[in-house]
Design goal:
A: alpha/beta, B: 5-stranded mixed sheet, schiff base (chain A)
């Protein structure tokens, strides 16, 4: 094989290494949230640039909703919809919201969010696990937004969640991945896909998530609230691909001291 | 009859059903979900589900969200 054959071969390998959630196949490992978009035009350009195939949506009272054209835009992009339960504080609220979303969007897939308070938007572990168990029993495909806690992640996977989605840092904070060690531990603790969800600020955060072994990244604000959402969406697409490649390539170990890459043998005495 | 519609007091016709309510309040949205007193009313039962005084009704539609 010549060097000219290697790159196309690697790219083919990437294409045949899709993300699989609940038996559904996605060639893109970037999931995009639609919250915070300045306009539907900006959203459409960002979705296309991201290459995302799975996009989150929400339900709200009709008086507070964005334009009815949202779903037309997403239909045009050819993406699959992932309704969320954002804003729910209890398992009961999350179950009802998921059932309403199933009616409205005609999908049994749900991004389960059960938050503890408005300041941190951190998941309420007790209500989250309770909600996950009820939703799985009711036939939902549950992608659970969770704390970066490997034990809770395992509990959610054991409860039948199709994917476990640990936060990097609080929703919308842009603080990146505050505990990379826990994300790596969680990755090893479960057999279902792990999707880094929340806290991504910029492209290097998304790449790090993939380097830590995550199967995908879900982000919204980092793109929708960027100065140029379309450009950031493209950056995230490349970052996720780069991180995945780097993970597969195997990084060099960290060393305390330098290690010359140029050989010392044959060094002339000058 | 007096009901609570999306958290606000509302006066509906005695003959109102979920279907008639959605026709009035669903706006331009083709995807709508309805809960009455904390229970989902599937689309297949909108026509036949009547409403009663004191009902609490949520009419929800798609919106952008993370």
């Amino acid at each position: 094989m010549t060097t000219h054959d290697v790159l196309p071969a690697l790219e083919r390998e990437e294409a045949t290494d899709p993300l699989v959630i609940a038996g559904e196949t996605f060639t893109s490992r970037l999931l995009l949230g639609t919250g915070g978009v300045p306009s539907l035009e900006a959203l459409e350009r960002a979705v296309v640039a991201s290459g995302s195939q799975l996009v989150t949506v929400a339900l709200r009272r009709v008086e507070a909703s964005t334009s009815g054209a949202l779903l037309e835009v997403l239909d045009r992009c050819g993406v699959r919809l992932l309704p969320n339960t954002a804003g729910c504080r209890t398992a009961r609220e999350a179950l009802l919201t998921a059932q309403l979303a199933r009616e409205a969007f005609d999908t049994s897939w749900v991004k389960l969010e059960v938050i503890g308070d408005e300041t941190t938007l951190l998941p309420d572990a007790v209500e989250l696990l309770d909600a996950a168990e009820h939703l799985v029993a009711d036939g939902f495909i549950v992608l659970a937004y969770t704390n970066d806690d490997p034990i809770l992640g395992r509990r959610l996977a054991d409860a039948g969640c199709a994917a476990v989605m640990p936060l990097g840092s609080p929703i919308g904070s842009g603080l990146g991945i505050r505990n990379p060690h826990n994300i790596a531990l969680l990755r090893d603790a479960v057999d279902v896909p792990v999707v880094l969800d929340a806290g991504i600020g910029t492209a290097s955060d998304a790449a790090l998530a993939m380097e830590l072994g995550c199967d995908a990244v879900l982000l919204a604000s980092a793109v929708t609230r960027a100065r140029d959402p379309e450009r950031m969406a493209l950056a995230m697409r490349h970052a996720v691909e780069a991180g995945r490649l780097a993970r597969g390539a195997g990084r060099i170990p960290r060393r305390w001291h330098a290690q010359a890459s140029t050989p010392m043998e044959g060094l002339p005495e000058l | 009859m007096q009901v609570t519609l999306n958290g606000v007091p509302a006066d509906l016709e005695q003959t109102a059903t979920v279907a008639s309510l959605v026709a009035m309040h669903g706006g331009e949205h083709r995807r709508v979900a309805v809960a009455v007193n904390g229970q989902v009313v599937p689309r297949s039962r909108w026509e036949t589900t009547g409403l009663a005084t004191g009902d609490s009704i949520e009419v929800l539609v798609p919106t952008a969200g993370g």
